[in-house]
Design brief:
alpha+beta, Beta-Lactamase, Helix Hairpins, 4 domains, five-stranded antiparallel β-sheet
C-alpha cells in the first residue's frame, strides 16, 4: 500500500502546513524581540542600504544609525580599523575596533539578496585569549606544561608543551574536562584512581579560597590512551574579571624510571649483600671448626715435646701463633657479616671495668715487649664503679684499639687510660706511632679500607678492627673516635654508657644494627 503524501495527509488530518505553523509562531513572538536582544543586528538591502538597526547595534558601534544609510557611509563614520567591513561578504567574520570595543562582526545572507550583520562584544573574551596566549607564550619554551582551568573544571587554554605531551594538536585540548584528563595518585605514583567532579570542584575552589599553591602527583592521560606521570601544582590567577586556576605540570617519566631502576638495583644489591653475609657466616663457622682442632692438637703436642727440643717447640709456637691470627681474622669476618645482617648479639651484664682492663693489658704485655715497646696504664680518674655492658664486646673493642696501636708503632710507648664519669666510662689509647694523614682520617673507620694500604701489608691486619669497634660502640650506646693524631702518634677514644639498655634505641637506629638480649627482647627495627 502506497503511503499517503504528507501534505495530503496533513490536510486529511487537519494539520496546517509548515509555512503556516512558522507564520503562526512568528506572530506569537514580541514585535520588539530584535530590539531586546543583546546582540547587535544591522539589516541591509541588496544594494547595501540600512533597513533596520536595533539599539544594541547602535550601542556597540557608538553611533546613531539612520535608515537608508549606505554601508560604505556607515563604515566611513567608524574608526579607521573598521574599513575592512566594506569588503565583508556573507559568511565572513571580522574583529574590528569600534566605540572603544572589540567587536566580532558576522555577515549572513538574507533570502531577498540582502545581508545581515550580527555584532557581538568580544572585548572580554579576546582580552582573555590574548592574556592567555601571552602567558602561555612566556612558557612556550619551558619544559613544563601550562594549562588554564576554569572553575568549572574545563581547560580554557594550554601551551604547546602541554598539548604535545598529551598528544593533542594545537588548540584541541581546549574544552577537555580535567576529570577525563587526570588521575590522582599517591606521592610515589601508586594507587591511581578516577577524579570525580566533586573532588575536582573542591580542589579548585579550595585553591581559590586559600590563595596558596597546591602540589600533588598524578597520571595524565594521552590522547592515544597512554599515561604519563606528572608533578602538578595549582595556584589561583585572575584574568581580567575572571577567576581561573593555573595548572603547571612537569613530565616526571624520566625521574620515575630512574627511581624504579635505583629501587631494583638497591634490591639486587641488598640481595647480593645478604647472600655474601650468609656465605661469610657459613664459611667462617666451617673454618673455625678445623682451626680449633689444629690449635688444640698443637697445644697437646707442646706438652709432649721435650724441653730440649727447641726446634720442635719453635715450630709449634709458629703454628699456634699463625692459627691464632687466622682465628682472629675469621672472627672479624664473622662479626662483620653479623653487623651487616643486623644479628650481632649483645649480652649486657654487670662488669668490673678495672678488672677487665687489667686482664686485657695482661694479654698484650708479652707481644708489645717482644717488639721492643713499652705498655703502660695511666692511673684511673674518677670513682670506679661497675657498669652494665657486654664484657666480651668491650674487651674486643679494647683489643682492636691496642692492636691498631701495636701495628703502627715502631718505637716508644702505648698507654691505656680510663676515666670514670657519672654517665659512662671513657677509654683512651695513646701511641707514639707514625700518625694518620689528614686525607685518610675520614676513611679510618671504613670496612676493609686498610686492605689496599701499603702499611697494612707490612704490618698485617684486615682493616676491620676499627670498623667493628665503632659499630659495637654505637650498638652499646657509645661511640669510638680518633681524638688526635700527628707525627708523634695518635689518640683513640672509646666511650660507653654506664648501662646498656633498650633506652639507647635511637643510637641503635643510627648504628644500623639490631640488638638481641639474652631475654629475647624485640629487635629495634629501622
Amino acid at each position: 500500500m502506497t503511503p499517503t503524501p504528507t501534505p495530503l495527509r496533513n490536510r486529511i488530518l487537519g494539520v496546517p502546513p509548515v509555512e503556516a505553523r512558522v507564520a503562526t509562531l512568528a506572530a506569537r513572538l514580541p514585535p520588539d524581540l530584535g530590539d531586546r536582544l543583546p546582540i547587535g543586528l544591522c539589516n541591509f538591502s541588496p544594494d547595501g542600504r540600512l533597513l533596520h538597526a536595533n539599539p544594541a547595534a547602535q550601542r556597540l558601534l557608538g553611533q546613531v544609525l539612520g535608515l537608508n544609510e549606505t554601508r560604505d557611509g556607515l563604515v566611513a563614520r567608524l574608526e579607521a580599523g573598521c574599513a575592512e567591513l566594506q569588503r565583508l561578504l556573507p559568511g565572513g567574520r571580522l574583529v574590528v575596533v569600534a566605540g572603544g570595543r572589540l567587536l566580532e562582526v558576522e555577515s549572513q545572507a538574507n533570502a531577498d539578496g540582502g545581508f545581515l550583520w550580527l555584532l557581538t562584544d568580544a572585548s572580554a573574551e579576546l582580552r582573555l585569549r590574548a592574556q592567555l596566549a601571552e602567558e602561555g607564550g612566556q612558557l612556550a619554551h619551558s619544559h613544563e606544561a601550562f594549562i588554564v582551568i576554569g572553575l568549572n573544571g574545563i581547560v580554557r587554554f594550554a601551551n604547546r608543551c602541554g598539548e604535545r605531551e598529551r598528544g593533542y594538536a594545537e588548540g584541541e585540548l581546549v574544552g577537555v574536562g580535567l576529570c577525563s584528563l587526570e588521575r590522582p595518585c599517591g606521592p610515589g605514583y601508586e594507587d591511581p584512581r578516577a577524579l570525580t567532579d566533586e573532588e575536582l570542584a573542591a580542589r579548585l575552589h579550595g585553591v581559590v579560597r586559600d590563595g596558596g599553591v597546591l602540589r600533588y602527583n598524578a597520571w595524565h592521560r594521552r590522547r592515544d590512551g597512554g599515561e604519563l606521570p606528572v608533578e602538578a601544582s595549582m595556584h589561583p590567577h585572575r584574568l581580567g574579571s575572571e577567576q581561573v586556576v593555573l595548572l603547571s605540570v612537569r613530565d616526571d617519566s624520566r625521574r620515575l624510571m630512574h627511581i624504579q631502576a635505583l629501587t631494583q638495583a638497591k634490591h639486587e644489591a641488598e640481595t647480593a649483600n645478604r647472600a655474601k653475609s650468609a656465605f661469610l657466616a657459613i664459611t667462617s663457622h666451617e673454618l673455625r671448626t678445623p682451626l680449633t682442632g689444629i690449635m688444640g692438637f698443637c697445644e697437646l703436642l707442646g706438652l709432649e715435646v721435650p724441653e730440649g727440643n727447641g726446634d720442635a717447640r719453635s715450630y709449634l709456637k709458629l703454628i699456634a701463633d699463625s692459627s691464632q691470627s687466622l682465628l682472629t681474622i675469621i672472627n672479624d669476618i664473622l662479626d662483620l657479616s653479623k653487623i651487616e645482617a643486623r644479628t650481632l648479639e649483645i649480652r649486657p651484664v654487670v662488669t668490673d671495668v678495672e678488672q677487665l682492663v687489667d686482664r686485657t693489658l695482661a694479654g698484650w704485655v708479652n707481644r708489645i715487649q717482644g717488639k721492643g715497646l713499652s705498655l703502660s696504664r695511666a692511673p684511673s680518674r674518677g670513682t670506679p664503679s661497675p657498669v652494665n655492658t657486654d664484657p666480651q664486646r668491650l674487651r674486643q673493642m679494647l683489643d682492636n684499639l691496642l692492636s691498631n696501636a701495636f701495628k703502627f708503632t715502631e718505637q716508644g710507648t702505648i698507654e691505656l687510660a680510663v676515666l670514670h664519669a657519672p654517665d659512662g666510662v671513657e677509654f683512651t689509647v695513646t701511641d707514639s706511632g707514625c700518625g694518620i694523614s689528614a686525607e685518610r682520617r675520614d676513611q679510618l673507620f671504613t670496612a676493609f679500607w686498610q686492605a689496599a694500604d701499603h702499611h697494612t701489608r707490612a704490618n698485617g691486619g684486615n682493616g676491620l678492627g676499627l670498623y667493628i669497634s665503632r659499630s659495637i660502640a654505637e650498638l652499646l650506646g657509645g661511640r669510638c673516635w680518633l681524638e688526635a693524631t700527628g707525627s708523634t702518634g695518635s689518640v683513640f677514644k672509646l666511650r660507653i654508657p654506664r648501662s646498656t639498655t633498650m633506652r639507647h634505641s635511637a643510637r641503635l637506629l643510627k648504628s644500623d644494627v639490631w640488638i638481641r638480649t639474652p631475654r629475647g627482647l624485640e629487635p629495634v627495627k629501622r
